[in-house]
Structure formats: structure tokens, C-alpha cells
Amino acid sequence: MIHIVFNANEVELMQKVFELDESLTGEVIQVKDDFAVGPVRDLFSAEGYQQRREWIKTTLEYSPYTDQLDIVDDKLTMHNLIKKLDEEPEEQVWIWMAQNAHDVSGYYWVMSQLKEYQSRIHVLYLNNLPFINEKGNIFYPSWLSEIQPREFLKAKKLARPITLSEFEVDPDEWKKTMNENAMVRFLEGGKKIVGKDADFYDKDILAHVTGAPQKLTRLLTTTLGKMKIKTGDAFLAWRIREMAAEGKLETAGDWEKGWKEITVALPGGTAGAAPAETETEA
């Protein structure tokens, strides 16, 4: 059994699930790219894939993740998966996803390449399903990592083969998404992905910026903690750079030295002054 997840913390989570239920034990594969943001036109072509890698390189510039571009090779991951499915005809794949655009976009990208293995590809889509949290309260998770490992023992009952009809319809939906090539993808409900402009998350950033200087790292942490619809910190930092170039924000500091050297303020503020808050980050 091969499990596919879309977030790094879910790899460790699945290991904890295996300890509770050995029948689920298997290889865990993480698809690392976040297909919910960035260009996706002609993504299955060499040119389209390279265009996306160039954009990712831009977003990771100056970030703590500059070494990750060479680590993230989902095309090789899929190549190895398909090779294993060809060599081991009894092998099955379980795709785990929660109700968020990151997981669902990843699902579309993965399953669009696996039609030849239709009866062996299963999906567990935990959308609009109640779970019990650590305090014993019912909640509806947006991410697999919000679910306690023991709750996965119930969730496994939801595993079902992706139908032949879905293998006809879903790749076409992803093709439409690629052709639209919006910079942000939003989950409207079910598996319906709609495109949004690059400034979709700008309001979340601006809600926490004032005329007083603020460390970029603090702004990212605050924004990610407060925003209802999540995205990655590298994407938010890229948007802050873009907004600064458009005159919507002011930044100061040497980007070459990394995020911790940057302060952010509203135009006309004092971005270059010492930050008002005390920073404790290492």
C-alpha cells in the first residue's frame, strides 16, 4: 500500500497512524509542490514545468527555503510511483486529502497521471466530515494535520477507488484550471477549484500592516495565524515584495541577507526605522 499526502507534517502523522493500525502500514509519498498557487499552464509539458520552476525560484529567493528548489522534484516522484505500479501489479495507492485548495489541486495533478491504474487508485477525501479534537469537541478539519491519529482509524473506512467516470471528468477539470492559469486557486466546495488573481491574499497581509515598521518575519507569522484560507509563507513574502514594487507597501533592509533583515510598513510610514516590537526569533 502506498499513501500519498501533500504536506510534510502529514508524513510523520501517517507513521503515528500505522502504529495504531498495522493494516494501513505502507510507503508514504509526499507531493511537495503547492499547486494551489503559481503558474500551471501546460504543466505536463517540459516548457510548462520549467516555467513553474522559474516562478518557484523567484518566490523562494531570499527565503529560508532557497535550497528546496532542487529537493522538490515531484515529476521524479511520480515517475518512480508509476514504475512501482508497473512492477508490482498488486500495489494500491491511497490519496489522502482534506478540504483545502492545496490538497485538492495536488490530487488533480496526481490522479491525472494515473488513469491506466484506475482500479488500484483510491481516494480518501475528508471534506465536510466531523471529527473529535483533543478536547473532545466536534470540529470540521481543513487539514489532515488537525486530525488526531486515532481518528484516522475511522477515516480509513472512507477509502474508495477513484471511479472511471472521475478519471474522465477530473483530468478535464484540471486541464481547464491549467488553461486558465490563474495565480491562485480557491476551493469553492467539493472538488470545485476556481481561479483568483495574484492579489487574492493581499487583504490578509494588509490587515496586519501599519505605518510603524514591523519585521517581515513577525508579519508573516501574524498573517498566517489569522488568515482563514491558508497559503504558504513564501508566497506571502513574494506578494509583499510585489506590493512594495507597486507602491502599496514600503520595505526596508537588505533582502540578500534574508527575511529577518526586512521591515514592512504602509506607504508614508517609517519602514526603515527600528521595529517597535521586540523580536525574539533566532
TrEMBL record:
InterPro entries: DUF1835, DUF3658. Residues 157-255 form the DUF3658 domain. It comes from the Bacteria. Residues 2-124 form the DUF1835 domain. This is DUF1835 domain-containing protein. It comes from Sediminibacterium roseum.
